[in-house]
Design brief:
410 residues; alpha+beta; 5-stranded antiparallel sheet; 28% helix
């Protein structure tokens, strides 16, 4: 019964489509629907690449027009127009989807998915630079703590593979990317947050873990970057680990992390490595204000308002859920009596960041300062001298590799 009705309906549709006016109407209507389907296909393609879905209109037009041409070819399959329309449809639809996957036309930064080579089910951490809870003045120095928390769906975990003597293996530092299926993979880190792998260096640390800057505040209480920074410094972390709980992780991220083998905690056995370090979901690494390196020398600073900026992963080497919460600004005031008062703290606005062609999001003034004051003036001999008579560094197998630089203990 149902097959008979379906056959009758199909015959009626074909008969109606055979009339010139109805054929044009069906082609037009089908084309309009196909445009919507084409735009939807582009959106799905954009989502599959891990991008935010912002694509240029030309991608949707290409794909939609292509699908419309395909529908027209189907309706006119018994005419001479079938071949050209079918070819045009396939070509335009393919061009639109490829255009969307590659960025919607024109050069643009690499999408997150391309940058990290992510696959379905991959879970990301969300490293967050918290504003300091303690800011004090001691003579010519401003002292402060530094807190980096993880509110993501997976541990912010790094694996270290040491160079093997007598071989071409120079070692590597990697981000561990967890997947909801229980597996994990390593993603090499190229710049900041790298392990100093020189065997004669005698100790391990991560370069450029957090970068500190002090600016004069402008009229809005923001860093006066045009006037230049007053002081700067870099934190080289020797051991990234959980120190305290860190609130604010979303229920969705907690649920995803809870399905991992270690329930969102750093998993040192997930991948073989010489050293495994990281910050678990809902935890934070903390460097107290009293530690060496947790200060900036500002000299005989004049009374007024200033901004202390702390930036975690300033080169944006680590792939995270949110790349725009890595810098925290604290507005302080130095009174006429020299006393320091904290006015307010908060994240640096997203407008301060620039997305580079390789997909990284950085704050230009931070990167430029680091290049000028850190990377162009690194001195291996000074670092080597600092490592003398330092305590040992814990390895992944429960032993020790060392020593580490003094002042990096907690």
């Amino acid at each position: 019964m149902s097959s008979s009705i379906s056959a009758s309906a199909t015959s009626a549709l074909r008969a109606a489509a055979a009339t010139p006016g109805a054929s044009k109407l069906l082609t037009f209507g089908g084309g309009a629907l196909a445009v919507g389907a084409g735009v939807g296909a582009v959106a799905l393609a954009a989502k599959a690449t891990g991008d935010s879905g912002h694509r240029r209109l030309v991608s949707g037009v290409l794909a939609g027009t292509g699908v419309a041409a395909g529908v027209g070819a189907a309706l006119l399959r018994n005419t001479r127009a079938f071949g050209p329309l079918a070819g045009l449809g396939v070509g335009l639809a393919a061009a639109g989807i490829v255009d969307a996957i590659r960025g919607g036309g024109g050069a643009k930064p690499a999408p997150l998915g391309e940058r990290a080579n992510l696959k379905p089910g991959d879970l990301l951490p969300d490293g967050e630079q918290a504003a300091p809870t303690t800011v004090t003045r001691e003579g010519d120095s401003i002292r402060f703590d530094s807190v980096v928390g993880n509110r993501g769906a997976a541990p912010l975990q790094l694996s270290l593979h040491l160079a093997k003597e007598g071989t071409s293996d120079t070692g590597s530092t990697n981000q561990v990317i967890f997947n909801e299926d229980g597996t994990a993979k390593e993603r090499p880190l190229q710049g900041g947050l790298r392990l100093d792998e020189r065997r004669d260096h005698s100790h391990l640390h991560f370069d450029d873990f957090v970068y500190f800057q002090m600016y004069k505040a402008d009229g809005n209480g923001r860093p006066d970057t045009a006037a230049g920074e007053l002081a700067q410094g870099v934190k080289q972390s020797f051991y990234i680990t959980d120190v305290q709980k860190y609130d604010g992780t979303s229920a969705a991220n907690l649920e995803k992390a809870g399905k991992l083998k270690e329930k969102g905690m750093v998993d040192r056995g997930i991948i073989p490595a010489d050293v495994m370090q990281g910050i678990s979901v809902g935890n934070a690494d903390v460097y107290g204000a009293g530690l060496e390196g947790q200060s900036l020398n500002v000299g005989d600073i004049a009374p007024g308002r200033y901004v202390l900026r702390e930036t975690f992963d300033p080169n944006d080497e680590v792939i995270e859920q949110d790349e725009h919460n890595n810098a925290a600004d604290t507005l302080i005031e130095i009174g006429a009596d020299g006393k320091l008062t904290t006015i307010r703290s908060g994240f640096a606005p997203a407008s301060d960041y620039t997305q580079l062609d390789d997909g990284r999001s950085v704050i230009p003034s931070v990167v430029e300062s680091m290049k000028k004051n850190v990377h162009d003036h690194e001195n291996a001999a000074e670092r080597e001298e600092a490592a003398t008579n330092s305590p040992l560094f814990p390895s992944n197998d429960g032993g020790f590799i060392g020593p580490i630089a003094p002042g990096h203990t907690r």
